[in-house]
TrEMBL record:
Family per record: Belongs to the UPF0382 family.
Keywords: Membrane, Transmembrane, Transmembrane helix
Protein name (record): DUF423 domain-containing protein
Pfam families, sorted: DUF423
Transmembrane portions of the chain: 44-61, 68-90, 96-123
PANTHER family the record matches: TRANSMEMBRANE PROTEIN 256
GO CC, alphabetical: plasma membrane
Predominant location category: membrane
Compartmental location: Membrane
InterPro entries, sorted: DUF423
Membrane topology reported for the UniProt record: Multi-pass membrane protein
Amino acid sequence: MLRILLLLAAFFGFTAVALGAFAAHGLKSQLSPDLLAVFQTGVHYQMVHALALLAVVLLGLHAPGKALLVAGGLFVLGILLFSGSLYLLSLSGVRILGAITPFGGVAFLGGWLSLGVAAWNLAR
């Protein structure tokens, strides 16, 4: 499972850089400033959580546990729901897609909470 999470961390990191460049160069003249900011927020959260996913994998190599796998899964889900909904919203202009975004935020929060549980269990 750690191998899959590592592959996903690499994929999400790569695509965050690519999407950020796409936004800066290709979308700048196509989107309004507010929709461009929405897209860039998606990129930012995707990159932060790709790095968090990498940290989960590295920690999992030294201290594997269920809480780490849960954290990794929630970070992946959060990227898909949070960043994905922001990308779709900004490119389509369909504002109702923003209703999905908080579910991704909750997944991120759950991932960080699970990571905290994993850290707590390390002390034992």
